[in-house]
Amino acid sequence: MAVQIDDLDRKILIQLQQDASLSLDEIAATVGSSKTPVWNRIRKMRNAGVIGTQTARLDADALGFEACFFVLIRTSEHEAEWQAAFLKALKERPEVQEAHRLAGDIDYILKVRVQNARAYDAFYQALISEVRVFNVTALLSMEEIKSTSALPL
């Protein structure tokens, strides 16, 4: 069930999505409110699970993680035991930034960030040594055109 938010909540969330390090004073001034109501609304939305953990967004290229692969996985295994082992393997690998189970011909898609192709191969070899997969296709992203976690509020 979706949480009900009003226009002021929406304005606050937009500000937080753009820069979660803004002070309460800065947010309040931007949304046209005072500090206390803004703080109360942020606290309410945190308690309701609308606002999750706040993190710093790092520059992958600046840190040497220049290769981004989208990995398409098809499997002939659909038993609970295989799925548990697969999910465990994914969660233990920091290279996996995102993992999605899909409808259609492809069972899973992963977003994997590594230093280079050699590092991807090491990731790939480790993954297939732990879980059986039917087919793996790796697509190298040549250019990141847009990347955001912001929701269209």
TrEMBL record:
Example of a GO cellular component annotation carried by this entry: cytosol
Highest taxon, organism lineage: Bacteria
A single BP term in Gene Ontology: response to amino acid
Keyword Isomerase: no
SMART domains named in the record: HTH_ASNC (SM00344)
UniProt KW keywords: DNA-binding, Transcription, Transcription regulation
The protein's name in its UniProt record: Leucine-responsive regulatory protein
Organism: Nereida ignava
